[in-house]
Structure to design on (283 residues):
């Protein structure tokens, strides 16, 4: 296994930017605000989306006609959190006629990163094939995520995987990675590789920044980060935004950190919420 480089490790240690008390508080908000957001909301919980992995997803905010859908992939450095922590935006999106799908995936190190990517892509395939029966519009799927979830969302934005699942190349019509990781190779020299257990060729094959270089299609996307991020996350957002969009700079949300920025999706008046809604047809 590659050795840890203390400077690189510091650049990717998100927990170092807040205290343990703050971290416990914000992760509790994920669960509490998700529960509040879906209370009484129309939807279906606990749907099996992938026979091979056995994982489940929840559908929230459905209506009387098929709705465009936001698939939100949780973070947790691929080894923590779940769909139950991930629906805090569902009520805010429901008010604009947008449904929310939150999938679980098998956490590392129980699953390899290749398997986690496969499962998230399988969740997208489920929305495309089965979503209409649950009130979803398979023609308008936007995939987003936070931190490790931003990496997984980006792995659905690139080309090269859709045909194997019998999907059209444009199955994902919009991307919304927040505080994401797009070049996995630096993580070989961090503590994160204790559970990813990657080598250089595997890390390269799992890096959406490298895969996007060979991607002809560029779906509309918002690449965002918090004002207070470890330096590695800022750099990753900058390089991926530059490659994918080729203009301006990533959306940087002021007065937010790596962990609480994504909770802004629960407030329809925040810049992050408005940016997400911009990837959907006007309601």
């Amino acid at each position: 296994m590659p050795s840890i480089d203390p400077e690189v490790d510091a650049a990717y240690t998100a927990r170092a930017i807040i205290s343990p008390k703050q971290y416990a508080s914000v992760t509790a908000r994920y669960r509490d605000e998700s529960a509040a957001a879906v209370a009484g909301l129309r939807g279906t919980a606990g749907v099996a989306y992938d026979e091979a992995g056995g994982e489940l997803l929840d559908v929230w905010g459905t209506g009387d006609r098929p709705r465009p859908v936001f698939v939100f992939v949780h973070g947790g450095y691929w080894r923590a959190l779940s769909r139950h922590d991930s629906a805090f935006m569902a009520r805010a999106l429901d008010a604009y006629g947008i449904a929310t799908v939150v999938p679980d995936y098998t956490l590392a190190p129980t699953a390899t990163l290749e398997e986690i990517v496969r499962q998230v892509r399988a969740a997208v395939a489920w929305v495309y094939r089965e979503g209409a029966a649950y009130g979803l519009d398979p023609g308008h799927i936007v995939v987003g995520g936070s931190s490790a979830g931003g990496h997984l969302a980006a792995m659905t934005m690139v080309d090269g995987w859709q045909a194997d699942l019998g999907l059209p190349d444009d199955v994902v019509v919009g991307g919304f990675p927040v505080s994401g990781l797009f070049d996995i190779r630096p993580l070989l020299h961090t503590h994160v590789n204790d559970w990813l257990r990657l080598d250089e060729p595997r890390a390269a094959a799992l890096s959406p920044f490298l895969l996007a270089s060979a991607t002809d299609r560029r779906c509309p996307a918002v690449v965002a980060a918090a004002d207070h991020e470890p330096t590695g996350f800022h750099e990753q957002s900058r390089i991926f935004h530059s490659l994918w969009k080729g203009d301006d700079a990533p959306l940087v949300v002021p007065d937010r950190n790596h962990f609480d920025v994504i909770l802004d999706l629960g407030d329809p008046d925040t810049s992050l919420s408005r940016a997400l809604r911009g990837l959907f047809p006007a309601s």
Remarks:
- Residues 6-277 form a domain with the Rossmann fold fold (CATH 3.40.50.1820).
- The mean pLDDT is 96.
